[in-house]
Amino acid sequence: MDPLEQKRAVGTPRQVVSTCCVSQVIHAGLYYGPDSIKTKLCLKGREMMYDFCAKHDIPHRNCKKWIVAQTDQQWEDCINVHKHAASIGVPTRFVSLDEGRRREPDVQAKTGILESTSTGIVDSHTLMEFLQDDFKEKGGECAFHSPVTRIETINGGKEGYRIYTGGGVGEDSSITAETLINSAGLFAVGINNMVLPKHKHRVPYFAKGSYFSYSSSAPKPSTLIYPAPEPGLGGLGTHLTLDMSGRMRFGPDVEWVDDPNDLAVNESRLEDAIKAIVKYLPSIKREAIGLDYAGIRPKLGKMGAVASGKGFQDFVIQKEDGYEGFVNLLGIESPGLTSSLAIAEMVEGLLYDSVPRYLIDAKHEHNGEGLLEDV
After folding, report:
1. Rounded to two decimals, what is the model's pTM?
2. pLDDT in tens, 208-225
């Protein structure tokens, strides 16, 4: 198997543009419909990720997450998340305001706190480098600087796929493969449209999320802090995340863009971010908050994070009828990092007709009653 990658290496800043890799959060799986692929893969992937990181000494930590409510309505939303989490076996607990003040004295929660006890963080760059090295040790080869320019289907995939790449020097080169896995992230819709007929083409949408740094040593919470979700947002609000060194950052926000390479942090969004941050961290030093970096979510439509009824977009992970050996992965945004090992297991099952049992009843492109979209 030969992965084709247009960037120079795995984990480079210009490659890791999905917000799920930038945040480096191991998500619990709180926010999706119970029958969705996102839920099933996130729950399984979370277990696999913790086990995998422990086995291979990949830096990670179960630091937990708080969802903080400032109004009665937000507290009702937290209660609903708790009930949903209980129904799918995800552990959450209510934290009293007194306990909250003892554990995180700088965090403000006026009406309540819901704690996700299985949420954590992982060093995603070390993880990706390990996976690359492991792949190469098992005989795989990675073709970097190889952006795909076109794909020819040979006899409906029965005789494989001819994949053309161009690195900017000379003519395109090509390889022929029996199996084609479209896991191109932000560029997956483009690959989809190279392979499938016009009536199956899709339009990509890109939701940029800017992150903001913090240069002061205080306050310094040790828990991930998320505001209670607000209807109509394309994400879960500007929240506080940590890296393995304890460095604090805020984000991502939501900004719809046309170019998947538009990774410039928009300075005009800083003031709105600060307004969101001080709601749950009022002692923050505003002058210490600055621009950091951005990631982009690969979306299949302009959908809000609060999905009431229609409006929830599930992962698309499926074989395409009439295209033997082709597995299509579209809209793999967060919780894509958390789900990644389970996604690989699912793709293997699709290719070799051995889909894991926990996925049998999951609905592709679930459009039923959803909850929230994790970012």
Report:
1. 0.90
2. 999 999 999 999 999 999
